[in-house]
## 1
Amino acid sequence: MNVVLIIRSLLCQTVVQAYYSRIQLLNEIQMDKKEAAFFLSHGSRAERSPTPPFCYDRAQEGVCEKRHMECKTEEFREYLCTKENQACPANLMCTIDGIWCPVHYRTHCANICDIFGQGQSKCKNGGTCINNGAESYTCICPQGFTGKDCERDIDECLANPCQHSASCNNVVGNYSCNCPSRFTGQNCELVCHPMTSDVLYLLDAGNLLTFDEFQGAIDALQYVSLLLLGSNDVRVSLVKYAAEPEMKFNFTNGLTETKVHQKIAILSKEVQPSNHTKALEYVYQNGFTTRNGARNDTRKVIVHLTNGRGIDNDTIHLADMLKNDGKILIEIGFGDFIDRKAMLNLASYPYMFYHLGEKQFTDVKVLRSLKSLSEYEVCNV
Ligand SMILES: *[C@@H]1O[C@H](CO)[C@@H](O)[C@H](O)[C@H]1NC(C)=O
Ligand SMILES: *[C@@H]1O[C@H](CO)[C@@H](O)[C@H](O)[C@H]1NC(C)=O
Ligand SMILES: *[C@@H]1O[C@H](CO)[C@@H](O)[C@H](O)[C@H]1NC(C)=O
Ligand SMILES: *[C@@H]1O[C@H](CO)[C@@H](O)[C@H](O)[C@H]1NC(C)=O
Ligand SMILES: *[C@@H]1O[C@H](CO)[C@@H](O)[C@H](O)[C@H]1NC(C)=O
């Protein structure tokens, strides 16, 4: 192997020296240009060998030319190749000043993926260039683009991807569907069903609340009318408690707004202290039973109105049991001296704890949160 290489190298140098003077005599640049035109149109300087081995593959010409007289007229190639004293490995190709040219003009070896774009990738729009060797490359195009160099935007709309008669907008590299209401997803393939909730108000009426705090909670309850109430929509119930919890109205039939307001109007504060633990225990056991009109496929929300005073570790334990059971606990605190830490411990998530001053339930955050929790959509195929 080594012997062959040395002989080749010696041969090359002889050839180079032999032609060097000739090249000097000619106008070298003119020569290059003229022959380049020939190469670009023919892919080869010399006639192809008419007998095997055929020189059809340009990458193999070097081999062919060693054996066939026809190919040996490749004087420039011998010269330029040897000038750089290297041949390009199979996966690199020949360039002159960064411009691709036929193998005959090999003066600099470069990866085909690197040289076309002048520092940028050959493949447009974020395509990945694969060097196939033999001066060929392939672009792997990102979704939404096609073409040899990923230069063409695919009009995805031609394939009518949007379902349910939605119109389609082709954008560069992507498309979007204008889904009719109740449908969503990239192709409007998801159908949305309005879902609803059973919301249980848990009202602290114990003597640890001041009168103003209790009145604040009652005012807050008025906003129940902002929910979409109805038998097939949001159903509400109310448990009032001090020492003992009592269900003032249950979910049965889905009370209307007027009915709910009537029932709220007669709620009054009590004289005993609040047993929060007992109240949550009651809700855990009786809050969402079928007998109370709770439905099977609804979200279950508890809105706890209190100042939090008197909540202990047992209460927190029961709140955990309710949450583990899938219930969502919203804590709304009234008054200036709420037990913030205790209420945070009860809430399902920190953002489901709200502190309102006395008599102010117009806080849009609370209302929006309660509304979106109770009236929501589930979208699936
Ligand atoms: C096309 O748009 C959809 C919806 O906006 C998006 O989820 C997706 O990632 C986009 N695809 C591409 C390739 O940008
Ligand atoms: C609160 O109720 C629980 C039972 O739910 C009971 O064990 C506890 O003693 C009560 N607390 C008070 C102060 O009555
Ligand atoms: C629920 O309320 C309805 C209507 O007020 C009532 O008839 C029913 O007895 C209540 N259910 C329970 C378990 O108390
Ligand atoms: C609710 O679920 C219970 C138990 O899974 C079942 O017995 C009852 O028939 C269901 N009720 C409705 C209205 O689907
Ligand atoms: C409640 O639990 C916490 C931590 O679990 C503990 O540090 C605290 O002493 C407990 N409080 C009572 C009154 O048991």
Note: The radius of gyration is 41 Å.
## 2
Amino acid sequence: MAAVDRFNLLYREISRSCSVYVEALAIVGAWYTVRKCLTLVFDTYSMLRLHVIPKLVGEIDIVKRYGRWAVVTGSTDGIGKAYAEELAKRGVNIILISRSKEKLEAVSRSISETYKVETDFIVADFSKGREAYQAIKEALKDREIGILVNNVGLFYTYPDYFTNLSEDMLWDMININIASANMMVHIVLPGMVEKRKGAIVNVSSASCCQPTPMLTIYGASKAYLDYFSRALYYEYASKGIFVQSLTPFVIATKMVACSSVTSKRSFFFPSAEEYASHAISTLGLSKRTPGYWKHSIEDKELILQYIVAFNGYFTAKARSKFISSALKSSDIENWRIVPRNNPASDYPSDFEVIQINEKQKDGVLTLEDHPNIKRVTPQRKVFRSLKYSDLVYSFAFEIIRGLAVPFKKCGDESVYNVETFLLQ
Ligand SMILES: NC(=O)c1ccc[n+]([C@@H]2O[C@H](COP(=O)([O-])OP(=O)(O)OC[C@H]3O[C@@H](n4cnc5c(N)ncnc54)[C@H](OP(=O)(O)O)[C@@H]3O)[C@@H](O)[C@H]2O)c1
């Protein structure tokens, strides 16, 4: 009892001398809680303002606010086509720009018949650089353009290391993803400024918010678009021009068909039509938004981590798909991908190995000679960096499967780093 008394005494003494610290901590705690609550309230309000209220109060008159004609680049498929249709639904006349004349004719006819608006199209290949714009300038000369949607974009055929990309790919990415938006704005914006009204929508991507290894130049080009849009907004808002940066996460279009997960519409991955109908209702309301409420939390720390994790997952999946077809086309059937961890990276696709059954040595040679394979390098180094636990796991796994690939074989030419099996 005496001991307890002494303890209570001690505790009271300590509390008294620390009371000032306890109070300081209580103030910090209260400040943090209030801040978090206010953030939650503001976030909820802006989500409602952007995605719910416009649906309740009805559509704004886009023609009256911005003008009668809209130009949409990359508009024969995916988001561009769906966005053009949404604009047409609201009475806006549409000028489509893409590469394929047949597709342009078909989409143009379908929009004008369905929505009873005027349509026109310009055949242009943005990968050609400067030469593409003379025709566009000519075609748009006498048109009063109220809305410009810079949607055209190029993605990787499959995620890959920067140095594996061809020079053509580098220039295409710059010309299509970056230069096209610059040039289109340069052509159209003076007319908008003259009328003191207009809207420019630049379709960036959630990839603009994080570095995207293995999709390096795609993410970097989207970061360019995002900064370009945000700066333009400040330059031209006072002149009546609304510039919006759209930063969607995955939309199930043919662009992301290289992974079976992203090619299908699902709860988080809307179809292009679903996406466009949400995105258009944010026009004039938010200068930077994913345009879709389920993607709206992407600015938060948690979702940024999610993007990193998803990017790793997507990269691994898409690469595996291409590697599989490369191996299959080389008549190598008996192989498997062994996932493993490397503490130096978050990106799993860098750290997988392929085991090819020893009997298929001829197959390995075929693989080396195969025209679709860039290079095949035996990766003894890879074996050395394998963690002990992974080796044990992979050995046990082999025994269970009854394959019993001798363990020591992992270090020789039957093990290849995934990066070495890539389609041209
Ligand atoms: N899908 C996604 O998950 C996602 C996510 C975030 C952001 N984005 C961005 O959204 C935009 C549209 O993507 P999407 O998924 O709708 O793409 P998509 O389905 O592949 O459609 C691309 C469109 O661009 C046209 N196009 C392609 N290369 C062209 C070129 N060199 N010159 C002129 N037109 C060209 C294509 O038509 P032709 O082949 O007939 O020319 C097609 O109409 C892109 O900027 C993309 O980066 C997409």
Note: The mean pLDDT is 78.
